[in-house]
Amino acid sequence: MNFKEIVLPGAQGPLAAKRWNGGELPVLALHGWLDNAGSFDGLAPLLTGCDVVCLDFPGHGLSYHRPAGTPYHFVDWVPEVFAAADALGWDRFSLIGHSMGAGVATLAAGTFPQRVSSLVLIEGLGPFTHPDEESPAQLAKSLLFKPSNKRLYYSTREKAVERLAFRELEPHSAQALAE
Q1: Catalytic pick among 39, 63, 99, 173
Q2: CATH number where 41 lies
Q3: pLDDT tier at 52 (50, 70, 90 boundaries)?
């Protein structure tokens, strides 16, 4: 089965996605850190009977990127999940999250449980927590953090696939992420 590339209005900018199958059961798939919607290229076509939309989070894949120096906060992706679902006309839907996407899915389901019919976590990574008394210091540390904003560029697609494969990915998985 083939997917269709779509663009959805997000909470703060356009969200790219891959739509698979066109079935009845709405499923939103959320990728892990430094990945993209291509993470689900192997799984999505197997979910027959489901309308699977694999989202590129902001700053990933073909979705909008914030200006240089603007941080991406974990919780900021939760409104993007519901903006995508709203754009698709989904009142209730299932969430599949991988790694960081599993953490975002958990926050989304906990925030609006009436909208999430089921939750599937693959290599689930929940939000990191600290004791209450450490919250002010942790917030200060987060606000003072300056990311390097160094983006990697590769001269060819083959070089990008080679680099992704070095992360212990199968070559076909690296190819899907590079595309």
Answers
A1: 99
A2: 3.40.50.1820
A3: very high
Give catalytic status of residue 173 as yes or no.
no
pLDDT in tens, 106-118: 999 999 999 999 9
Residue 177 belongs to a domain? no
Cβ contact 29:46 at 8 Å: no
Mean pLDDT of 133-143: 83
Report the predicted TM-score, pTM, of the whole model to 2 decimal places. 0.75
